[in-house]
Amino acid sequence: MEKNQTSLKNKLKYLYNLKHKNIVKKMIKIKKKNSKYIEKILLKKVEKLYYKPIYQVNVLATHNNTHVSIMNYKTHYVLAKASAGSTGFKRLTKSTPYAAYRTTLKVIKKARKKGVVNTVIKIKGVSRSKKRILRVLKKNFRVLFLIDNNNYSHNGCKLKKKT
After folding, report:
1. Which of 99, 111, 118, 152 has the fewest C-beta atoms lying within 10 Å of its C-beta?
2. Are residues 63 and 100 in the same domain?
């Protein structure tokens, strides 16, 4: 009995880290009211959240175009991908935030059909459309964590004086 309680506590701590606080609080209230029967229900609810697969959303937002792809986090199998050019935008309109919004919606529709819920977002590049893309992804998926890689070029470190 003690082993089950410790594993339950570990799962609840894990869920707190994943920002499922409101769900975990409800489960704890249920546990306090009654005994063993409700504890079993609690374990089942936690496992459903705990064992859902995680997917990775890769976003490349450059000055000229935006690319968005969703793939499985473990196997790196691509489920859906799109770019501003593939959605029908041409020339300067590819770099607008609206074009980025439309591409993410296109990818989200494909991913929703395949059951994507938990995501890790990796954003790369410098563009004005990054905020718009993030907003759309946060509305549609449960974001576990976010990684932002910016490659700013800066001529390197300052050299030492030659004496």
Report:
1. 152
2. yes
pLDDT at 50: 53
Going by pLDDT thresholds of 50, 70 and 90, the confidence category of residue 153 is: low
pLDDT for res 63: 87
Same domain, 40 and 119: no
In a domain, 156, yes or no: no
Number of domains making up the chain: 2
Report DSSP letters for 1-70, one per residue.
-HHHHHHHHHHHHHHHHTT-HHHHHHHHHHHHHS-HHHHHHHHHHHHHHHTS-EEEEEEEE-SS-EEEEE
Instruction: Give percent of the chain above pLDDT 90.
Output: 20
In sequence order, the β-bridge partners of residue 80 are 70
Amino acid (1-letter code) at residue 156: G
pLDDT tens figures, 93-147:
888 999 999 999 999 999 989 888 888 888 888 888 888 888 899 899 888 888 8
Say how many Å lie between the first and final Cα of the chain, rounded. Answer: 74
Cα 101 from chain centroid (whole Å): 16
In this prediction the pTM is 0.62
Asked whether the CA dihedral 75, 79, 83, 84 is positive or negative, the reply is negative
Domain carrying residue 6: 2-50
Give a yes or no: residue 125 inside a domain. yes
